[in-house]
Amino acid sequence: MTLTATAKDVRESGRVSFLALPWLAAAVVLTGGVVALVGLRVRRRRALGT
Q1: In angstroms, what is the C-alpha Rg of the chain?
Q2: What's this model's pTM, rounded to 2 decimal places?
Q3: Over the stretch 17-41, which tens digit does the pLDDT of each residue have?
Q4: Less Cβ crowding at N or C end of the chain, within 10 Å?
Q5: Within 13 Å of residue 33, how many CA atoms lie on the same side as its CB?
Q6: What's the rounded Cα separation, in Å, for the pair 32 and 26?
Q7: At 7, which helix (H) or strand (E)?
Q8: What is the rounded CA–CA span in Å between residue 3 and residue 12?
Q9: Are 15 and 2 in contact (CB under 8 A)?
């Protein structure tokens, strides 16, 4: 993204970059990963206990 500001006899530009992260999608993926890990642990404990 580039921003240019001009005034009488003056011209300046600035440049910036950023990461736009869709927080809802990141939260859903993270939650799914946690649920999957917990599910694996529960299945392993049940298999060992029987």
Answers
A1: 25
A2: 0.53
A3: 877 889 999 999 999 999 999 999 9
A4: C
A5: 6
A6: 10
A7: strand 2-7
A8: 8
A9: yes
